[in-house]
Amino acid sequence: MPVLLCFGDSNTHGTPPMRMQGEYRRFDAAARWPVLAAKALAWDLVEEGLPGRTAQFADPVMGGHMDGREGLKIALQSHGPIDFLTIMLGTNDAKARYGASAELITGGIAALLDIAQSTEMQDRHGGFRILLICPPPVLEQGPIMDQFYGARARGLALPPLLADLARARRCGFLDAGTLIKVSPQDGVHFEAESHATLAQGVAQALADLASG
């Protein structure tokens, strides 16, 4: 049975729309998109979603472990062998405190692909395919809007950049923003219905990748 590793941030972890800053909640397994996608494919699943994770930045508030480059190395050395990897990051990189352009965010995703596609990691797992998922753009509203000042414009510019990157690296690609939108409650996270919709899209994209 193929093994799928889903690597991402709070929207891979399953954080519901927030009602206030600092709260911690999580959708149960029956609602989270990685679980639903793996179930649809009848694959085994490793969930690696960390709230606050970025593609490339050590968070000055949340800690250095939010840098996805180190997190991906740890995940790929902790689990396996895997057959497929999804990466959905970039939302937190768009926070105001990083001052990152869409191009710089794309560079951070490219660094993750460098790690995942390295000879070391590919050999360790016997080779695996990658689906790069572009997150939907945020809405600058709700209880955490101050952290995401200017992030919507950066998010709107991201899909064509990541699509080009995926083509160059011969990865699968899915623009989640064509399927779902973030919740207006906090402008960042997904409602349960969106998790279900995204799961269907991811499952189809992975099935296409597996047969290609």
Write a concise synopsis of the structure shown.
The protein is of the alpha/beta class.
Structure description:
With 212 residues, this protein is α/β, with parallel strands linked by helices. It has a single domain, classed as 3-Layer(aba) Sandwich (Rossmann fold), CATH 3.40.50. The protein is 40% helix and 13% strand. The protein contains 7 helices and 5 strands; from the N terminus they run βααβαβααβαβα. The chain has a 5-stranded parallel sheet with strand order 2-1-3-4-5, sandwiched between helices. Helix 2 packs across helix 7, helix 3 packs parallel to helix 4 and helix 4 packs parallel to helix 6 (151-169). The protein is globular and about 45 Å long. The mean pLDDT is 97.
How many strands in all? Answer: 5
Number of helices: 7
Average pLDDT, rounded to a whole number, is 97
Q: Name the beta content range.
A: 5-15%
CATH superfamily: SGNH hydrolase
* Overall domain count: 1
Quick one: overall form?
Answer: globular
CATH first level: which class? Alpha Beta
Query: Helical amount among residues, as a percent range?
Result: 40-55%
Largest sheet descriptor: 5 strands, parallel
Helix-and-strand structural type: alpha/beta
Alpha-carbon distance between the two ends: 18 Å
CATH architecture: 3-Layer(aba) Sandwich
Order of secondary-structure elements: EHHEHEHHEHEH
Strand order of the largest sheet: 2-1-3-4-5
CA-based gyration radius: 16 Å
Low-confidence runs of at least 5 consecutive residues:
none
